[in-house]
Amino acid sequence: MFGMNKKNIAVVMGGYSSEFQISLNSGSVVCEALDPSVYNVFAVHILKEGWFYVAENGTKHSIDKGNFSFKAEGKNVVPDIIFNTVHGTPGEDGYLQAYWKLLDLPHTSPNFYQSALSFNKRDCLSVLKGFGIKCANSYYLNKETDYNVDEIIKKVGLPCFVKPNRAGSSYGISKVTKLEDFDKALEKAFTEDHEVLIETALIGTEVSVGVYKLKGEIHVFMPTEIVSENDFFDYEAKYLGKSQEITPARISEEITKRVQDEAKKVYSILGMSGVTRSEFIIQDGEPYLIETNTTPGLSKESIIPKQVRQAGMTLTEFFGNLLEEAARRI
Question: What is the CATH number of domain 138-200?
Fold first, then answer.
């Protein structure tokens, strides 16, 4: 029987995008790590086929969308706090955050506007450029829009990246080095989203930086250097071991501080909360922002858990901090 004097935590995982399996892995790590002496932990799957609390024995109990409650051990449970691990839609793009806000349910991710803005790479980069954040040259394209390849390449050059505007885990991304490969790369990107972002391929060291807030104060982890065996940090490199992820990154103290300051600035400008992870390419000593993620991966091979351990924290401690910070924000 779950304890009656402990906070009820719904660890929400899954989603409707290509990333749902990765999210289920993140969610299971969180469920395993949360302290059972402090929290009653409930795994909640949000999938295209339905929303369910999944008990330890595998039985599924439907979620009442009227108040996000469910039956557990014969009792009706309304979560005290939601730990959001949904990558992609509807948990990273603001839909669930807006719904939880209407229900007055605290959650660990940023609020709905911040989530929606950062999920749309085009809009997010456009905002951040106005605050002096350096980004790659880019060209935006919608599926129904006519385009001129020569005009695009004139702006971004070769090699360039063709990527879905609103997708994660490197789904749909191609690196284009020859003009004749451009149309095929565009077709691939459009399988994930009807908006596409085309960017100059920056040359330099790729780093990833976690940022979080605790008791109202912004904290920044040491950057992780990403060395991909593939042409770039694609799905295989991220999840199938085709990369080295070195924490802390093999960069000077000065550049480490610069990239940490930029990550903190991005977090602050966008009004973030919870934990985010920002990706940069350091070209000629300058950090260029690639994107920022509001529900970063938390599975065992993910970057944030590695940075947490490098900082001398356990996942139990860190995830507990995120929950307490979420409760404090209400």
Answer: 3.30.1490.20
